[in-house]
Amino acid sequence: MNVSLTPELEAFVHDKVASGRYTSASEVVRESLRLLEEREWIRQRRVDELRVEIQKGIDDVEAGRVIELNNDDELKEFFEDIKRRGRERLNARRSKEA
Is the confidence at residue 98, as pLDDT, over 90? Predict the structure, then answer.
């Protein structure tokens, strides 16, 4: 298999080999492909998790487990409550770490 690289990528590969961390350009490319594969695996897991969370939201709506906000004041109060609870959780976590 032949692969064409930009001059910048070619220099990057040569620099990695010259650093002594890799013994050949092929080794650099193999490591790069392993990292790409890992990154794509992680991305797919995140997409899968997001799909699960979206389905939970859809299920909640279909089951009537929703909060109806009818005006800007209710919306503001709702988000202030979310921020307050988030700060409480963060402070609790920090207390445990201390």
Answer: no
Instruction: Say what the pTM is.
Output: 0.64
Domain ranges within the chain, ordered by starting residue: 67-98
Tell me, what's the pLDDT at 9?
98
Report the residue count for the chain. Answer: 98
- d(Cα 62, Cα 35) in Å, to the nearest integer? 40
* Average of per-residue pLDDT across 20-45: 98
Question: What is the per-residue DSSP string for 10-53?
Answer: HHHHHHHHHTTS-SSHHHHHHHHHHHHHHHHHHHHHHHHHHHHH
**Smallest Cα–Cα separation from 5: which of 38, 29, 24, 31?**
29
Cα dist from 60 to 10, 63, 64, whole Å: 52, 5, 6
Distance (Å, whole) CA 64 – CA 60: 6
